[in-house]
Amino acid sequence: MLSVFISGFESQTGKTIVTAGLAATMQSLSYSTNVYKPICMNSESVSWLEFIKKVDSNISTEVSYVLKSNLSPFVGAYEEGLNIDVNTIFSTYQACAQIKDCNLIEGTNCISTPVARNMTEIEIVKMLKLPLVMVVNPKKTSIDKVISGLRYIQSERVEFLGVIINCFDENSENLEEKYFAEILKEFTDVKILGYLPDYGDISTLAPETLIADVLNNIDIEKVFGLKIAKLNA
C-alpha cells in the first residue's frame, strides 16, 4: 500500500497541484489511486474535485466534511454546529486504503491548523500513521516561516519525508525565491523531494504536462518510500 499525507504551512501553496500530479502519475503507472481530503472548505470543494478529475478521471476522490466557512476547520465547524469526528476520518481512510493501491491524503489550510477540540492537522497525520510530505511555495511563504515550520514538524516526531517546492523559479529576480532550495539545505537537514514550476492559470494546464513534470522533477520513489518497479522496468 502506497500512502502519504500532503500538507503545507498555509493555504494556497499548491497542495492540490502536487497531490493531483502525484496521483495522476501513479494512476498512469497502473496503480489504482484515491485522493482523500478529510476536510474541504466550501469555496474550494468544487474546484478541488474538478481539478483532480480533469487531471485524470480515473482517480477516485473522497471528502468527509465540507464546511461553508473559509476559516480554520475547527472555527468553521463550530459556527455551523458541526462536530468533526476524527474517528470518521480514520475509518474513511482505512476503507479507501483497503481498495486502492495508492492513497494520497490532502490537508486543509496548514499542518498546524485546528481541526477539532485539542487537535491540529498534524495530529491527524499521527493518528493515520502516515508519512508526511510538505508543499512549500517560495512565492507564498517566506523562508524564515518555512524554517520555523520545519523545526515544528521535526519536534512532533512524525515520519517526515521532506518537501516539494512548488512554483519554483531558479531564474527569479527575487533572490530569496531564486536561492530558496539552497537556503533550506543550509539551515535545515530537510530532504528536497522535487520541484514544480509556476503554471500560472492551472485551468489550461495539460494533464500530460503535469505528469511529465512529476516524473522528471519529483523523486516519487522517495515520496512513497519504496522502489516502484514500474519506474525501473
Describe this structure as you would to a colleague:
The chain is an alpha/beta fold and 233 residues long. The protein has a single domain (2-231), classed as P-loop containing nucleotide triphosphate hydrolases (Rossmann fold, 3-Layer(aba) Sandwich), CATH 3.40.50.300. It is 42% helix and 21% strand. It is built from ten helices and nine strands. The strands form two sheets. A seven-stranded parallel sheet has the order 3-2-4-1-7-8-9, with helices on both faces. Strands 5-6 form a two-stranded antiparallel ribbon. The model has no long low-confidence stretch (mean pLDDT 89).
Which features does this protein show?
233 residues, Rossmann fold, globular, 9 strands
Which SSEs are present, and which pair or pack?
Layout lengths: L1 E7 L6 H14 L4 E9 H14 L4 E8 L5 H8 L5 H14 L2 E5 L7 E3 L2 E2 H8 L3 E5 L6 H13 L4 E6 L9 H4 L1 H8 L4 E4 L11 H11 L2 H5 L9
Parallel strand pairs: 1-4, 1-7, 2-3, 2-4, 7-8, 8-9
Antiparallel strand pairs: 5-6
* SS content category: alpha/beta
Task: Give the count of helical stretches.
Answer: 10
Rg, Å, rounded: 17 Å
User: Separation of termini?
Assistant: 19 Å
**CATH architecture term:** 3-Layer(aba) Sandwich
CATH homologous superfamily grouping = P-loop containing nucleotide triphosphate hydrolases
Helix content estimate: 40-55%
Q: What is the averaged pLDDT score? A: 89
If strands are numbered along the chain, what order do they take across the biggest sheet? Answer: 3-2-4-1-7-8-9
Q: How many discrete structural domains?
A: 1
CATH class descriptor name: Alpha Beta
- CATH topology group: Rossmann fold
Poorly predicted regions are: none
Shape summary: globular
Number of strands: 9
How many strands, which pairing sense, and closed or not: the largest β-sheet? 7 strands, parallel
Order of helices and strands: EHEHEHHEEEHEHEHHEHH
Strand content: 15-25%
